[in-house]
């Protein structure tokens, strides 16, 4: 009987993996290291969890972007002159450095002063002449456009289409009233500009002061900016910044030359066709070239409407053919000749930023949208390009437009013979 009350052998407790002196596990949760989740009545779907995670991150980025845009709006009186100085430096800095390199006896400070004075005289004179020609011809141009819209409205109402409803007539009358009030709006804008002449003068001085240092000592300014980048990523950011500025150099140079070529070619063609107001129309085409795609469409429509009233349908069709010829010369000859493949943007990457800039900041936003996209495109391409990871920043010339995209210089696997010869010429010139 005493033997029956003897405790069980401790080894029996190990049959089910239990420890000595402990009861055998009765559930999975009792096993050592086991984790059992409590039963939940409902779980968040994986797709909804991922979507919500992306949503709050996108909202956070959008809020940060909105804050940046708001701060930029508050500092526009300082930011706009600095941006204009950067764009002007991309046009004048290569000439100043080229002058000091070719003529060893010319100090860099003197070369900067010479290029600055000559650039302001030439570019300022051209823009002043174009603006003056456009403003002086604006009243006659407005009259011609009003007559064009009136004639089109009358033809649509009495012609074969018979579109004589009141809503359509109201739209045409609103367009005519807008054109007739444009001169008054221009006059009020001029009065407002005179009222803020002190602010305008201060911004011009700030632009000139910043431009001088960007041309003379831009490398020192860039090194100061790079000091805020972590050391591990500083060389990569340096290469990306150099390629971005090179793209701005090419864009600014090509845009001015293309705008001048378009205005001269179109002006001569309009004069040969016999369209009136050749000078204001050429000036409008010149300014339209600074807003790619949209500017050409707007200036072309104005030229066609003026030709339609002055010479009829034949002259309007001739103007359409002329403008198509000018655009093809620009797209297939001028831009490849001036830029090659160093700057190339998709049409959507041109139109959408222009529309966003126009909505946010009006005409200045539309003018500065494409240069900004060009700079960002070149910088991002450099950051994701594997060959730029171990590249020495000193080998990238920020004043050469072809440095924006190194593949143009023969980095492709199978470059064409023409591109190979051009690449050789560029290397020998730089050497």
TrEMBL record:
Residues 11-29 have a biased composition (Basic and acidic residues). It is found in: Cell membrane. GO terms for cellular component: plasma membrane. This is Putative PurR-regulated permease PerM. It comes from Actinomycetospora cinnamomea. The chain crosses the membrane at residues 74-93, 113-135, 190-216, 251-273, 279-309, 316-338, 350-376. Its main location: membrane. GO terms for biological process: transmembrane transport.
């Amino acid at each position: 009987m005493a033997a029956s009350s003897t405790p069980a052998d401790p080894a029996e407790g190990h049959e089910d993996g239990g420890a000595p002196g402990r009861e055998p596990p009765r559930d999975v949760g009792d096993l050592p290291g086991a984790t059992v989740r409590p039963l939940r009545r409902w779980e968040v779907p994986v797709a909804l969890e991922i979507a919500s995670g992306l949503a709050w991150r996108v909202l956070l980025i959008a809020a940060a972007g909105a804050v940046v845009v708001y701060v930029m709006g508050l500092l526009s009186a300082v930011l706009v002159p600095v941006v204009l100085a950067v764009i002007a430096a991309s046009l004048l800095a290569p000439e100043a450095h080229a002058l000091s390199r070719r003529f060893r006896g010319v100090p860099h400070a003197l070369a900067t002063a010479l290029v600055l004075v000559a650039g302001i005289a030439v570019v300022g004179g051209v823009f002043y002449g174009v603006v003056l020609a456009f403003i002086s011809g604006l009243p006659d141009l407005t009259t011609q456009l009003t007559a064009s819209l009136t004639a089109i409205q009358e033809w649509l109402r009495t012609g074969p289409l018979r579109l004589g409803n009141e809503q359509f007539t109201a739209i045409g009358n609103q367009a005519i009233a807008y054109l007739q009030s444009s001169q008054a709006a221009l006059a009020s804008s001029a009065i407002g500009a005179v009222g803020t002449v002190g602010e305008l003068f201060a911004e011009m001085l700030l632009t000139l002061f910043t431009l001088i240092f960007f041309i003379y000592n831009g490398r020192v300014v860039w090194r100061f900016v790079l000091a805020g980048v972590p050391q591990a990523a500083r060389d990569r950011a340096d290469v990306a910044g150099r390629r971005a500025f090179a793209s701005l150099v090419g864009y600014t140079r090509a845009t001015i030359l293309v705008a001048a070529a378009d205005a001269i070619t179109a002006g001569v063609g309009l004069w040969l066709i016999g369209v009136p107001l050749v000078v204001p129309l050429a000036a409008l085409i010149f300014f339209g070239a600074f807003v790619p795609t949209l500017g050409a469409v707007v200036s072309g429509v104005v030229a066609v409407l003026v030709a339609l009233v002055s010479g009829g349908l034949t002259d309007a069709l001739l103007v359409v053919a002329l403008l198509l010829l000018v655009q093809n010369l620009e797209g297939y000859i001028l831009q490849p000749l001036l830029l090659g493949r160093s700057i190339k943007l998709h049409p959507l990457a041109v139109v959408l930023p222009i529309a966003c800039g126009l909505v946010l900041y009006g005409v200045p936003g539309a003018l500065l949208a494409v240069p900004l996209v060009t700079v960002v495109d070149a910088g991002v391409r450099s950051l994701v390009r594997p060959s730029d990871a171990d590249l020495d920043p000193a080998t990238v010339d920020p004043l050469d437009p072809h440095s924006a995209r190194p593949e143009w210089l023969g980095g492709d696997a199978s470059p064409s013979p023409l591109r190979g010869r051009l690449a050789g010429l560029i290397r020998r010139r730089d050497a």
